[in-house]
């Protein structure tokens, strides 16, 4: 189902990428492992759109079902489609309270949601992103999805079944922004799917999204829990952050003004998906330039060459930092440097001698073997 009434700009800012049926089914299938409909007094979808997350037999078994949206047109369409629910035209991020939805304080509440993911600091679609609504000061964050989770926390539901980017959990800055939420809710299940599953979403820049089930709990969720969590994917694969070491441990990823400088510059890094879109070595001083010290040059060469292999990785690794096996990388430093020198002849000219054809062939073979073993999978040659 597409948000037919929205322009591209409105779709981006309102999060108008509606949930496909197979994701709705997976969400409720997973939720039913932790709580059954007859254990719930009220179900709330505060970002209901056309009502996709209300269109399931699980929802129909709950006595009180409430849908709401800031987009009045979407809310009206949902209201006409579903007679088992009551609908409201509400900004879910302002004056957050159960009473706004006529839900009692003692009601055992379940929230299901696919809130907007609108990070105003991201370079992706930054030409169309803007603040679209008022937000309570205590839940104001740079990303509407982060604010939404903090809003759910204020409503004190017993369970939350929500779709949100994997990056909300695995990136420490995001996780720390969610501390009030994470202190009160334990992650019970996390299944990853590709954002390209959403109709009208970009087919070039897919990123990992979670079907996440949270339960109210005094123990909450720690970053250590997330670091060791085994994330399942909708394709029946799995992965954990703890299975890799990461380049951020060895280099400066963001603009710096300290340390000895080799004279080389590198573009700011975030995660694997950002690396795919950005430059690596640069030859001009800009705001996003990272100054490279001599002892770290080979690590930046590693990132530079990693970029050439990044398209071989599964989508669910897109928001991870660049993984590295430092012990195996050590003996291969010269191979990575040789490939970078050959790739950026202008930048390295007169400073590092260009590799001979024989050295280049050996370096390519060494690097290919390294990446095959790092990911324990056969990579296509680049």
Protein model, in words:
There is one protein chain. The strands form three sheets. A nine-stranded mixed sheet has the order 3-2-1-4-5-7-6-8-9, sandwiched between helices. A three-stranded antiparallel sheet has the order 12-11-13, with no helix packed on it. The two termini are 37 Å apart. It has 15 helices and 14 strands. Strand 1 (42-45), helix 3 (57-60) and strand 2 form a beta-alpha-beta unit. It is of the alpha/beta class and 382 residues long. Helix 11 (297-309) crosses helix 13 (333-343) and helix 13 crosses helix 15 (357-374). The chain has helices at 8-14, 21-31, 57-60, 72-81, 144-155, 167-170, 172-177, 179-182, 223-228, 272-277, 297-309, 326-329, 333-343, 345-348, 357-374, and strands at 42-45, 64-69, 86-89, 109-113, 159-165, 185-194, 208-216, 231-233, 238-239, 245-246, 265-267, 281-282, 289-291, 323-324.
| Overall residue-averaged pLDDT value | 90
Total beta strand runs: 14
Reported by name, the CATH topology of the largest domain is Rossmann fold
Indicate the proportion of strand residues.
15-25%
Global outline? elongated
Q: Please name the fourth-level CATH homologous superfamily of the largest domain.
A: Vaccinia Virus protein VP39
Low-pLDDT parts are: 122-129, 377-382
- Structural domain tally: 2
**Share in helix:** 25-40%
CATH architecture of the largest domain, by name, is: 3-Layer(aba) Sandwich
Structural class: alpha/beta
Strand order of the largest sheet: 3-2-1-4-5-7-6-8-9
Count of helix runs: 15
- What is the alpha-carbon Rg in Å? 23 Å
How far apart the termini lie comes to: 37 Å
* CATH class label of the largest domain: Alpha Beta
What's the story with the biggest beta sheet?
A: 9 strands, mixed
Order of helices and strands: HHEHEHEEHEHHHEEHEEEEHEEHEHHHH
């Amino acid at each position: 189902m597409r948000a037919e009434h929205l322009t591209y700009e409105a779709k981006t800012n309102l999060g108008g990428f509606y949930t496909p049926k197979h994701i709705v089914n997976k969400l409720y299938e997973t939720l039913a492992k932790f709580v059954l409909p007859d254990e719930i007094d009220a179900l709330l979808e505060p970002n209901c759109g056309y009502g996709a997350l209300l269109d399931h037999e699980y929802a129909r078994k709950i006595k009180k079902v409430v849908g709401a949206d800031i987009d009045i047109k979407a809310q009206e369409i949902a209201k006409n489609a579903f007679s088992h629910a009551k609908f409201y035209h509400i900004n879910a991020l302002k004056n957050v309270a159960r009473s706004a939805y006529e839900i009692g304080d003692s009601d055992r509440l379940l929230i299901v949601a696919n809130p907007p993911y609108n990070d105003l600091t991201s370079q992706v679609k930054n030409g169309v992103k803007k603040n679209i609504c008022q937000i309570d000061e205590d839940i104001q964050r740079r990303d509407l999805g982060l604010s939404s989770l903090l809003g759910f926390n204020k409503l004190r539901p017993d369970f939350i079944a929500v779709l949100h980017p994997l990056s909300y959990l695995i990136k420490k800055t995001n996780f720390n922004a969610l501390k009030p939420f994470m202190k009160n809710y334990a992650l019970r299940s996390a299944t990853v799917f590709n954002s390209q599953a959403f109709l009208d979403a970009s087919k070039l820049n897919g990123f990992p999204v979670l079907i996440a089930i949270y339960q109210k709990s005094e123990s909450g969720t720690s970053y250590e829990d997330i670091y060791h969590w085994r994330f399942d994917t909708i394709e029946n694969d799995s992965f954990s952050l703890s299975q890799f070491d990461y380049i951020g441990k060895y280099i400066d990823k963001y603009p710096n003004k300290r340390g000895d400088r080799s004279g080389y510059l590198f573009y700011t890094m975030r995660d694997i998906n950002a690396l795919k879109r950005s430059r690596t070595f640069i030859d001009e001083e800009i705001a996003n330039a990272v100054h490279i010290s001599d002892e770290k040059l080979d690590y930046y060469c590693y990132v530079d060459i990693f970029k050439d292999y990044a398209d071989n990785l599964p989508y669910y690794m897109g928001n991870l930092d660049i993984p590295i096996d430092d012990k195996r990388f050590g003996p291969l430093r010269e191979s990575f440097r040789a490939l970078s020198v050959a790739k950026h002849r202008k930048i390295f000219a007169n400073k590092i001698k260009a590799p001979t054809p024989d050295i280049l062939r050996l370096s390519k073979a060494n690097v290919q073997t390294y990446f095959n073993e790092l990911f324990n999978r056969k990579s296509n040659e680049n």
